[in-house]
Amino acid sequence: MFSYVGGCVLFAALLHATWNAMLHGNADRFLSMTWMSVCIGIVSVVAIPFLPLPASGAWPCIVASGLVHIGYNMALVRAYQGGDLGATYPIARGSSPMLVALGAAFFAREHPGALPVAGIVLVSAGIVWLALQRGNVSGKGALAAFVTGATIAVYTVIDGIGVRASGHALSYTAWMFAFYLLMLPLFIALRGRHALRAPAAVVAQNVAGGLVSVAAYGIVIWAMQFGAMGAVSALRETSVVFAALIGRIFLGEQLTAQRLLACCVIAAGAVCIGA
Fold first, then answer.
1. What ranges do the domains of the chain cover?
2. H/E/C letters for each residue in 216-273?
3. What is the pTM of this model?
4. Could you read off the pLDDT of 217-259 as tens digits, one per residue?
């Protein structure tokens, strides 16, 4: 699956790390996530009339995934309030590939070979090792990051099943992302309409982050038509390597020898998955 599809997933990993860095870099992450979600939802609604309807068997997955994504958004916001990017991001991403592989085996009867399984284990171990290198995270922040990882695993399995039943990956993605518009009434209910106000530059940055997020996960959903869910998920989570580099270059975070070695473990796992 490596070659073209795997390369696309790695590109999606870079995009994912980028929009998460943009989210973490804002002081009011709930507000930023809301504006990103509104952008994602509007793009989806605009695209829907030009796409065929997903097959009927995909609709339960579309609804379930859309709602789980709202829970994921809220958990991610909470995690970033309790720790820096270098600590919380690896915990959230590292706790999902093994769960995805188990869920895919149970619900979709996917049974990858020994080498891909070893790759998934290496990627997961490397990501967790990265997380352990950083101590700047509260207990509540770490718990929220693990909850975020669990929601990632849930929606990944749902989307892996749903996109195969939909008959059209782009249509499935658009309808699922339309649920992101629910973030707006949720924000207003919790913070009030007045709290939506933000400088134009901040809104523009969040809109850009939303567009990057659409591209990042849209590629992943497309890729799950061709590759095992666990393998795609593990390749996507190599985004922690990009996050470590982004943190070093743009946020001034330290990149130690142990963190570099953990990145090598992740890269070795990606090679095993793609072999």
1. 2-274
2. HHHHHHHHCCCCCHHHHHHHHCCHHHHHHHHHHHHCCCCCCHHHHHHHHHHHHHHHHH
3. 0.81
4. 889 888 887 766 767 777 777 777 787 788 778 767 677 788 7
